[in-house]
């Protein structure tokens, strides 16, 4: 089982600013059987509203500094946090998550394999 935590702003395409991770990629993660949710600076209630608008049911919504609680709550073979800042990387490391940077260059190395979607240049995994 794989668990993927998403930052919102600068990471997801619906963030402010928009990020590189599409909602299609999030939906694919869900179809692949991954545990998915958000770990953001945005209030938990706001995160839940975002998921409701997407008609997706997250496995978790937490504030960024509480990422370790997600790991303690779910048993998985791999834990990933996808974000766009050094703060994301810091909290991912503290919680024992693999950090994946949400930018076009980094996405080419991990996105197609993790999400089974084309990279930003259209290359299939």
Structural summary, described in words:
The chain is an alpha/beta fold. Helix content is 39%, strand content 20%. The protein has helices at residues 23-31, 44-54, 67-73, 86-95, 104-115; strands at residues 2-6, 35-40, 60-63, 78-83, 98-101. The chain has a five-stranded parallel sheet with strand order 3-2-1-4-5, sandwiched between helices. Helix 3 packs parallel to helix 4. The longest helix has 12 residues, at 104-115. It is globular, with a radius of gyration of 13 Å. It starts with a strand and ends in a 10-residue tail after the last helix. The mean pLDDT is 92.
**What's the N-to-C terminus distance?**
20 Å
How much helicity do the residues have? 25-40%
Strand content: 15-25%
How many helical elements?
5
Mean pLDDT: 92
Could you spell the SSE succession in H and E letters? EHEHEHEHEH
Q: How are strands sequenced across the largest beta sheet? A: 3-2-1-4-5
What is the chains' assembly state?
A: single chain
Low-confidence stretches: none
The whole-angstrom Rg is: 13 Å
How can the largest sheet be summarized?
Answer: 5 strands, parallel
Count of DSSP strands: 5
* Overall outline: globular
Structural class: alpha/beta
């Amino acid at each position: 089982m794989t668990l993927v935590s998403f930052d919102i702003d600068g990471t997801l395409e619906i963030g402010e600013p928009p990020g590189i991770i599409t909602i299609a990629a999030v939906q694919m993660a869900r179809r692949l059987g991954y545990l998915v949710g958000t770990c953001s600076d945005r209030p938990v209630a706001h995160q839940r509203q975002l998921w409701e608008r997407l008609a997706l049911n997250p496995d978790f919504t937490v504030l960024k500094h509480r990422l370790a609680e997600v790991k303690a709550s779910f048993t998985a073979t791999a834990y990933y946090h996808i974000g766009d800042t050094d703060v994301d990387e810091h909290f991912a490391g503290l919680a024992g998550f693999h950090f994946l940077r949400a930018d076009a260059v980094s996405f080419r190395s991990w996105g197609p394999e993790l999400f089974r979607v084309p990279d930003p240049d259209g290359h299939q995994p």
